[in-house]
Amino acid sequence: MRQCRAFALSESVARLRPFLVLLAMLGLAGGFALRMAGHGAAAPYVWAAATAPVLAVLVVEIITSLRRGDVGLDIVAALSMSGALVLGETLAGAVVALMYAGGQYLEFYAEGRARREMRALLSRVPRSALRYDGEGRIAEVPLADIHPGERLLIRQGDVLPVDGRVVDEPAMVDQSAITGESVPVRLLPGREALSGTTNIGAAFDLLVLRPAAESTYAGIVRLVEEAQKAKAPMARLADRYAIAFLAVTVLLAGAAWLVSGDPVRALAVLVVATPCPLILAVPVALVAGLSQAARHGVLIKGGGALEALSQARTAVLDKTGTLTFGRARLVDVRVFAGANGDDDVDADEALRLAASLDQASAHVVAEALIEAAGERGLALSAPHEVSETAGRGLAGRVEGRPVAVGSLSYVGEYLDGAVPPIEGMDGSTAAVAVAVDGRLAAVLLLADLLRPDAAGLLARLEQEGVSRLVLASGDRSDIVAEIAAGLPLAEARGDLSPQDKLGIVRQERRRATGAVMMIGDGINDAPALAEADVGIAVGARGASASAEAANVVLLVEGLAPVADALVIARRSRRIALQSVYVGIGLSGLGMLAAAAGFLAPVQGALLQEVIDVAAIMNALRALAPAPGMSAPGTAKGS
Fold first, then answer.
1. Dihedral (C-alpha) 366, 368, 371, 372: value to the nearest 10 degrees?
2. Taking the model in full, what pTM does it have?
3. Beta partners for 204?
4. Does residue 208 sit in helix, strand or coil?
5. DSSP secondary structure code for residue 515 in this structure
6. Where are any strands of DSSP class E within 162-279?
7. How far apart are CA 432 and CA 512, in angstroms?
8. Contacts of 198 (CB under 8 A, 6+ apart)
9. Is the dihedral of CA 153, 154, 159, 165 positive or negative?
10. Neighbours of 585 (CB within 10 A)
11. What are phi and psi of 130, to 5 degrees?
């Protein structure tokens, strides 16, 4: 199906779609009503009045398309309506007008609904910041008024509005949305902090290095815009048949007129040739596919995205927040035995005491420990006398016992002796020490784990014909290699910037025989998502830049819907093609009959409507669930 012409028009014209459908329906019904009431002479005028507005909008669309070098099957519909009005076959014109306006509205409705549900690209970025003035007072100012060298206050939970340097006190930030690094980072004074990252620790001061327009996040936004402008649109389903079908139709109609000397016979050929299966059945199948995908928690932004997804043969995947959870989770508890055997703390008790103390902290690591304790069914106690050092740890009492939780250096200050050596750790884990009663009780190891359904997703993608799987991450190469071990990946690369990811997608598009899809979730994935033939944003983490740049957005947790969407897209396209082949084949037989003089224009229009019904009924099969697919809301393969 060709690209929806409505988006080439102004919004005011595009909004006329439902009114054109209504006008065509009322005009067709009104003409028949006049005939039945004995006023048959007035009926042609009503049918002509209903046809003319639809034809006028169609002519504007065709002119706009031709200026872009886009030749579509709309020309056949325009010739049919024009010829019907000129030759007085207004009933045939009204039937074609209703068919055409209905198909246009279906496509416009589907894509307009997807646009309305999307958030703006820049919704993540703050519009203002808290700036110190020359006397140390703090005032909220617009981002445009912030200049290098000024000092900002970044509160806990704030997204950094500009690139800057941490001053005075250390900062704890979550950089996963920008760099892909899953473990929170502690930035000492003097270190640079990137815009778009989130302050998850105590408030800190930031010295502005660059204005907002030149920040890291603004650069990523520019990459998204450039990728969207540079990417050539994919050919739509009907466009691949447009020129050949148009040429055959015009030649056959001309030959019928030339041989018979009757222009009405040529009109009959044009009416029968009006590509109803393409204009109606294809959007019905694709809209049905969009509806199926939505029931599985997948928002696909229109028929074009569904078509592109159906032809995917290569997948580029992000790691952090996509194949992994994107947040720290407890993976191991290393217990340290002391001299007093009966007083030693076991793994569950160490976790319970640490999580109890961490109830007083808003740190993401504290959240991870509390979640892990809940999963093990451990009962937490209320902490008392708690003191927290931002970015390092906290100490207090739990059930009267002194407990300290935090970095090894921080907890070491609460130990009676030296910190024992910790062996067997790697770069993919973060260590949280737990001291109880002045002794090191345990070290809790946290890491960003592979999602349980990640391997199942890759297996299903391969099963559905995605022959090349590439992992592209901004996280460290050693962590990426560890995650990739055992997965059916053709290539795994780490330490990638947003520009690097964009380059990988472009490289894969050059080498791929089918479409390339990119699956990611962070702001740093947005340029690659925009560049890919079909970008799929994992929406659970809520990075609006990636959701806006992508063609497909997962609205539920888990990865199984990605494969479900691929199955739905391929089945919907297959059903649409069946409707095309059967409909065009029947239309071809009707054209030959009309050229031979066996069908009048009105008869041809009615025959075409019978073909429409058959094609649409077949297209509606796309509403039924695909065989073997997971039920909505489940995570098959997890």
1. -110
2. 0.63
3. 154
4. strand
5. E
6. 164-167, 171-174, 185-187, 192-193, 198-199, 204-208
7. 45
8. 157, 158, 159, 160, 173, 174, 177
9. positive
10. 12
11. -95, 115
Which token pair is 325?
A: 């959870």
CA distance 254 to 278: 23
Determine whether 400 is exposed, middle or buried from the number of CB atoms within 10 Å of its CB (0-12, 13-18, 19+). exposed
Give the separation between CA 615 and CA 285, rounded to whole angstroms: 10
Distance (Å) of CA 431 to CA 285, 361, 442, 471: 53, 17, 10, 26
DSSP 351-403: HHHHHHHHTT---HHHHHHHHHHHHTTPPP--EEEEEEETTTEEEEEETTEEE
Give the CA count within 13 Å in the CB-facing half-sphere of 52.
Answer: 9
Length of the chain: 638
Three-state SS for 27-47 is HHHHHHHHHHCCCHHHHHHHH
What single DSSP character describes residue 426?
-
Grade residue 12 by pLDDT with cuts at 50, 70 and 90: low
Whole-number Å distance between alpha carbons of 509 and 229:
16
Strand-pair partners of 516? 314
The single-letter code of the amino acid at 446 is L
Q: What is the pLDDT of residue 396?
A: 94
* 3 state DSSP class of 245: helix
Query: What is residue 234's predicted lDDT score, i.e. its pLDDT?
Result: 41
- Residue 57 pLDDT > 70: yes
Which residue type, as a one-letter code, is found at position 544?
S
Tell me the two tokens of residue 112: 């307009």
Digit-coded pLDDT (tens) for 73-121: 677 778 878 887 888 878 877 877 887 787 667 656 645 544 443 333 3
Instruction: Pull the structure tokens for residue 589.
Output: 């037989």
* Closest of 405, 534, 426, 546 to residue 480, by C-alpha: 426
Predicted confidence (pLDDT) at residue 402 exceeds the cutoff of 90: yes
Distance CA 394, CA 407 (A): 10
Strand pairing category for 401-406 and 151-154: unpaired
What is the DSSP track for 62-98?
Answer: HHHHHHTT---THHHHHHHHHHHHHTT-HHHHHHHHH
Return the bridge partners of 500, or none: none
DSSP lists the bridge partners of residue 173 as 185, 199
Contact between residue 54 and residue 23 where contact means Cβ atoms under 8 Å apart: yes
| Integer Cα distance of 15 and 172 in angstroms | 49
What percent of the chain has pLDDT above 90? 12
CA-CA distance, 459 to 486, in Å (whole number)? 12
Both tokens of 51, joined, read: 């046809």
What pLDDT, on the 0 to 100 scale, is given for residue 599? 82
Backbone phi and psi for residue 30, each to the nearest 5 degrees, phi listed first:
-65, -40
Give pLDDT, residue 615: 74
Beta bridge partners of 316: 470, 518
CB atoms near residue 6 (< 10 Å): 22
Q: Which residues are catalytic?
A: 318
- Which two tokens mark 399? 């059930």
